[in-house]
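Re: [ENG-882] Designed sequences occasionally contain unexpected residues at chain ends

Forwarding the minimal case from QA. Structure tokens:
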């Protein structure tokens, strides 16, 4: 089960190529199934959280705050810059800014483990960035993308509560009051998350196949540049600020990896043009691949 989970970038990449080749393979996974899939992923995240996980905020508030600030400055700014540099059409530009304004992805915890980074810090940062996403994701998207299309800030706000806060809270409460039952199922949560992330990405890639092909290199390069920027500046800025190599690697992973599934759901629920969800789907492929390569490199280069 652990091996299957750790190979999540491979599954996402394979499913995406299969979906481009034959969209019908994944087109059945759509609508409320995508929303429900993300809810299950967020529920699984909540199941893993307890009071001890949030002690990191008290123990190392400076590192947590640094990561949070970089998460919601480096990525949204990069999304806005690259949407203009690559002259993306409005739906793709808004979609890029939307996913750039999302919180860190739950897969970052797995990558931090593989990279021998600071897993407790990673879990804490993912949790905190997810909670504040209720306010910051709609607000940043509205500020940075409002000039391109009409952005429904309240719609994004309520969607984020429904697909993030409610299932995460349910998971935390289950872990608190049904701990024995939770312990029996929590080991399967990472693999379940990988399955649903793969289905969500492949479904959106297949649905937008013609638009992806038409957009060509510009869209691909914009999404790649977004995540490369996140990993790079997340590491450099935290290294200059904290002087802590392991923490800097962890923050780099957190900043570079987004909750792309949330981006997909928010795009589909709040924007009329279905193309707005495509950058989020492609995002999942690129941040998974870059993160896996970094994890393999850092795993072999332990700090002296």
């Amino acid at each position: 089960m652990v091996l299957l989970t750790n190979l999540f970038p491979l599954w996402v990449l394979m499913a995406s190529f299969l979906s481009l080749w034959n969209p019908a393979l994944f087109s059945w996974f759509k609508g409320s199934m995508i929303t429900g899939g993300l809810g299950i992923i967020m529920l699984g995240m909540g199941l893993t959280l307890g009071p001890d996980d949030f002690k990191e905020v008290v123990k190392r508030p400076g590192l947590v705050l640094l990561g949070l600030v970089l998460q919601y400055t480096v990525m949204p700014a990069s999304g806005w810059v690259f949407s203009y540099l690559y002259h993306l059409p409005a739906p793709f530009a808004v979609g890029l800014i939307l996913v750039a304004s999302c919180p860190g992805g739950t897969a970052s915890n797995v990558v931090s483990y593989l990279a021998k980074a600071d897993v407790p810090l990673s879990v804490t940062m993912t949790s905190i960035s997810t909670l504040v996403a209720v306010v910051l994701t709609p607000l940043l998207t509205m500020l940075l993308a409002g000039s391109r299309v009409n952005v429904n800030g309240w719609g994004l706000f309520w969607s984020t509560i429904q697909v993030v806060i409610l299932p995460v809270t349910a998971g935390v409460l289950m872990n608190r009051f049904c701990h024995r039952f939770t312990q029996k199922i929590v080991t399967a949560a990472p693999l379940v998350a990988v399955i649903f992330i793969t289905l969500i990405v492949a479904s959106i890639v297949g649905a937008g196949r013609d638009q992806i092909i038409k957009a060509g290199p510009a869209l691909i390069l914009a999404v790649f540049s977004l995540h490369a920027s996140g990993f790079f500046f997340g590491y450099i800025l935290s290294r200059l600020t904290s002087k802590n190599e392991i923490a800097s690697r962890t923050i780099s992973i957190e900043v570079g990896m987004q909750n792309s599934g949330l981006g997909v759901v928010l795009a589909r629920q709040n924007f009329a043009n279905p193309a707005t969800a495509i950058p989020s789907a492609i995002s999942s492929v690129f941040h998974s691949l870059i993160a896996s390569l970094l994890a393999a490199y850092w795993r072999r280069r332990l700090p002296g």
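QA comment: On inspection the terminal residues look reasonable. The chain has one domain: 32-298. Proposing we downgrade this to a documentation issue.
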